């Protein structure tokens, strides 16, 4: 099945390209007073080389940065950020990796820390006091409801190393069939919980990086995968996706659900797309857009936006233009593949958040390249 954009949407896209540049506003100081933490490619390469050179025993040793207690992070942490926004009372960034900077005290904090342990893509989180009841509760709580403002949206947890710890999201649509956005690990415990929530009818893949176990999810549930035709590859098996998007959208959802729109957001990769849910006022943003964290600060859900400039495989200016294009949609929640989620309280805060992001990067959008690699 191939979806193409309509003439109306083509005209709309052309109009978007003529949009004036946003007002030059300066980046607001962060809520914590700390600067946004910007993971760097060169530092990550050094970190990964260090991990690769360690002995097995050394790899599984606790980082000295952990505070004393039952939970700890070992030296194989790849800094995917997951634990820090899943269990922010317990984990923070210290140096280039995560650490337990406060041991969980309440049952709620212990279960959240256990869910982070289950979701760590490289099994770098451990506890010396594993309570079977808490483990059961942690497993039963994934997928985890995202926010009271967006009932029916769940964070799956169980991140996969194959997508560098990318998040998967589940949209539950009673009577219509559920949508999985990007791919969590195909863990039997997660599959069982997803079955209880009604299974999966569609797997929407934002782009080529975060496809992980897409084939297993699609095969188990008989789900249709959706991906842009130029993000599909033979080596990842996404060329077998049942729905391929062509052109530049926006595209209606294949089953006609008017609440869902697929939006073309090139920049991180050349044919990246995001999914907008009008009902939930949520953007499922893949690697296009996410939130901010700071070193050694416990993360809190807020309105600050972030793009991984150092992990960009196509064009940062084009990515920023794609972010501005999203101002055409009424979203309050940004639910990313990588990095923490975002919540803005209204349209004014959304406009300010986008303006701050663009001003912080200081890149003239008009300079965006228009030449894509030949395929
Ligand atoms: S989830 Fe695991 S790999 Fe990711 S930041 Fe936490 S400890 Fe590191």
Automatic annotation (TrEMBL):
Alphabetical list of CDD domains matching this protein: YmaE-like_MBL-fold
Domain (Metallo-beta-lactamase) ranges: 165-338
Entry-linked InterPro entries: Metallo-B-lactamas, RibonucZ/Hydroxyglut_hydro
Gene3D superfamilies from the UniProt entry: 3.30.70.20, Ribonuclease Z/Hydroxyacylglutathione hydrolase-like
Region of interest: Disordered: 1-40
Family annotation (SUPFAM superfamilies): 4Fe-4S ferredoxins, Metallo-hydrolase/oxidoreductase
Biased composition (Low complexity): 1-14, 21-31
Record's protein name: Metallo-beta-lactamase domain-containing protein
Protein species of origin: Raphidocelis subcapitata
């Amino acid at each position: 099945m191939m979806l193409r954009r309509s003439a109306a949407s083509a005209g709309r896209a052309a109009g978007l390209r003529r949009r004036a540049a946003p007002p030059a506003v300066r980046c607001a100081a962060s809520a914590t007073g700390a600067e946004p933490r910007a993971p760097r490619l060169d530092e990550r390469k050094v970190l990964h080389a260090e991990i690769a050179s360690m002995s097995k025993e050394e790899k599984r040793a606790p980082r000295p940065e952990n505070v004393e207690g039952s939970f700890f992070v070992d030296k194989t942490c790849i800094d995917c950020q997951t634990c820090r926004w899943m269990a922010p009372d317990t984990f923070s960034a210290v140096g280039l990796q995560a650490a337990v900077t406060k041991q969980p005290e309440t049952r709620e904090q212990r279960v959240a820390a256990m869910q982070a342990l289950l979701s760590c893509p490289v099994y770098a989180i451990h506890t010396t006091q594993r309570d079977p009841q808490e483990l059961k509760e942690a497993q039963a709580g994934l997928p985890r409801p995202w926010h009271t403002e967006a009932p029916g949206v769940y964070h799956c947890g169980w991140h996969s190393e194959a997508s560098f710890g990318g998040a998967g999201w589940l949209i539950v649509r009673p009577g219509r069939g559920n949508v999985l956005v990007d791919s969590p690990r195909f863990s039997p415990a997660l599959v069982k919980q997803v079955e209880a929530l009604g299974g999966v009818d569609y797997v929407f893949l934002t782009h080529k990086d975060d496809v992980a176990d897409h084939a297993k999810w699609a095969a188990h549930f008989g789900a249709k995968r959706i991906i842009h035709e130029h993000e599909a590859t033979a080596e990842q098996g996404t060329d077998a996706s049942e729905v391929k998007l062509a052109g530049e959208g926006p595209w209606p959802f294949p089953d006609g659900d008017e609440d869902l729109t697929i939006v073309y957001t090139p920049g991180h990769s050349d044919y990246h797309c995001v999914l907008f849910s009008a009902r939930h006022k949520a953007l499922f943003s893949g690697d296009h857009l996410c939130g901010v964290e700071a070193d050694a600060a416990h993360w809190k859900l807020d309105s600050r936006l972030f793009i991984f400039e150092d992990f960009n495989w196509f064009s940062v200016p084009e990515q920023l233009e794609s972010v501005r294009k999203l101002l055409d949609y009424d979203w309050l929640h940004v639910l990313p593949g990588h990095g923490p989620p975002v919540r803005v309280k209204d349209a004014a805060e959304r406009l300010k958040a986008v303006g701050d992001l663009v001003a912080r990067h200081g890149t003239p959008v008009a300079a965006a390249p228009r030449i894509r690699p030949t395929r």
